[in-house]
Design brief:
With 437 residues, the chain is mostly helical. It folds into two domains: 16-206, MFS general substrate transporter like domains (Growth Hormone, Chain: A); 226-437, MFS general substrate transporter like domains (Growth Hormone, Chain: A, Up-down Bundle). It has 18 helices and two strands. It has helices at residues 3-11, 14-29, 35-46, 50-77, 79-106, 111-143, 148-176, 181-203, 221-226, 231-252, 255-261, 268-290, 297-317, 319-322, 327-359, 364-371, 373-392, 406-429; strands at 397-399, 402-404. Strands 1-2 form a two-stranded antiparallel ribbon. Strand 1 (397-399) and strand 2 form a beta hairpin. It starts with a helix and ends in an 8-residue tail after the last helix. The relative contact order is 0.14.
């Protein structure tokens, strides 16, 4: 094999041109889920309550979904432009967040610092998240046309696993960077993630034999694609995606307190890491299994049924409220957390392939982007819904020296099981079977 042949082989290798750059992009932007590790410390450093800084994360998820929806056509036309936008916005937003944390430390209670964090972590990083999330998906499905689910699951698993990988590194930085370590960490990570995403941007490439179809009516193309099947079909996909994320966020946002409620405060870090692994494993495992099913919607039915069963068991046994000291009930609650995390992740990884089965590959980036608007709205409703329920129902009590609200956490499950049932009905009666061909 001569040198030219080797270069040509490398340039057209699906792992170098799709899988590796997808992981570099998604393992970078997925660290947005590490927010809970340092949100309280940011609030203390700039002189605000944690409840004020929490909105930065909500804005990041909202603008992730909305930027994906509005910039889907940019991704469709030019993945190099979109992946470069992602690298600049994500790293720039992270560096800007560090700068405003530094400013807030020098001027405690400054509204400029808080609004600056909203702008940088929420809006600017959110744009990087949306474009970075979308950019490699279609490319993966084109390179791995016979195993689309496995390929997209691999990338989206990187997004889910990013928290498990980055969390210990961030905790080490916060403990060892000294005074102002919180903003120093953001500056360091901004540089690291920019390099990772830039390499992913340079490597990312669609197959040479794929040619984007020309669209005469670009503004109406997505609507016309959706109308190729009954409109309730797409409505069903969007709603069950939205409800699955809402349920996942509602439980995951209370996960640490539920674990403490079980008397396992000393194991919160370990259990959270395991749940993150299930989240990533669900993204890869459920999407890979989808390749082997006749109808990919079957995966959603399995996700919803399994979530309903484990949630119902915890409701009937009152596992959260009475699980402390009871090994069987504790294991049941932990099983529910793991299954919901896996289903939450699997819901993400199966959406692009489910859409491609129903509507084809020609406009999949733009269509996937619009569908991710469900993530935007779920990011605003999921956490806030569960927080309202916990604050409204039950009362706080002390278990093993920690103040918790077992009744409030149990009440969250009544809402999530109802939403899972609605999701299952949508999957059964709205989303009709599609031919993968």
């Amino acid at each position: 094999m001569n040198a030219n042949t080797k270069v040509s082989s490398w340039r057209n290798n699906k792992w170098f041109r799709a899988a590796i750059p997808a992981l570099l992009l998604h393992c970078s932007i997925g660290t947005v889920y590490c927010w809970s590790l340092f949100s309280d410390q940011i609030g203390q450093y700039i002189g605000f309550q944690k409840s004020a800084t929490e909105w930065a994360f909500s804005f990041a998820i909202f603008f992730l979904g909305m930027s994906a929806a509005f910039l889907g056509n940019v991704v469709e036309k030019d993945i190099h432009k979109s992946s470069l936008i992602a690298a600049i916005c994500f790293a720039g937003g992270m560096a800007g967040t560090g700068a405003f944390i530094w400013y807030g430390g020098a001027h405690p209670g400054s509204l400029i610092a808080l609004l600056g964090i909203y702008l940088c972590y929420g809006l600017i990083m959110g744009i990087g998240l949306g474009t970075g999330y979308l950019s490699p998906i279609k490319t993966l499905m084109l390179w791995f046309s016979d195993k689309k689910g496995l390929a997209t699951g691999l990338a989206v698993a990187g997004f889910g696993a990013a928290k498990a990988i980055a969390s210990p590194i961030m905790e080490w930085m916060l403990a060892n960077l000294g005074d102002g370590g919180i903003y120093k960490m953001f500056f360091i990570l901004a540089g690291v993630y920019f390099v990772m995403m830039l390499v992913g941007h340079l490597l990312l490439k669609k197959p040479d034999d794929w040619h984007e179809p020309a669209s005469k009516e670009e503004a109406n193309s997505i609507i016309s694609v959706i109308k190729t099947r009954p409109i309730k079909n797409y409505i069903g996909i969007w709603l069950m995606f939205y409800l699955n994320i809402t349920c996942g966020l509602a439980l995951i946002s209370q996960e640490k307190m539920i674990i403490k409620c079980l008397g396992l405060a000393g194991m919160v870090g370990i259990i959270s890491t395991i749940s993150a692994v299930f989240n990533a494993g669900g993204r890869l495992g459920w999407s890979a299994l989808g390749d082997k099913t006749k109808d990919r919607n079957t995966i959603y039915k399995i996700i919803f049924v399994s979530s309903i069963i484990v949630t119902a068991l915890v409701i009937f046994t009152r596992g959260i409220a009475t699980g402390a000291g009871n090994t069987l009930l504790t294991l049941l609650v932990l099983l529910m957390i793991m299954i919901v995390n896996a289903g939450y992740g699997g819901g993400f990884s199966n959406v692009p392939t489910l859409l491609s089965d129903h509507y084809g590959m020609s406009n999949i980036s733009a269509l996937h982007g619009i569908t991710l608007s469900a993530w935007a709205f779920a990011g605003l409703t999921g956490n806030n819904l569960s927080a309202w329920i916990v604050n409204t129902f039950g009362k706080e009590e002390v278990i093993n020296g920690i103040t918790v609200n077992p009744t409030g956490y149990q009440a969250v499950l009544y809402v999530t099981i109802a939403l899972y049932i609605v999701s299952l009905l949508l999957s059964l009666f709205f989303v009709r079977p599609a031919d993968k061909k």
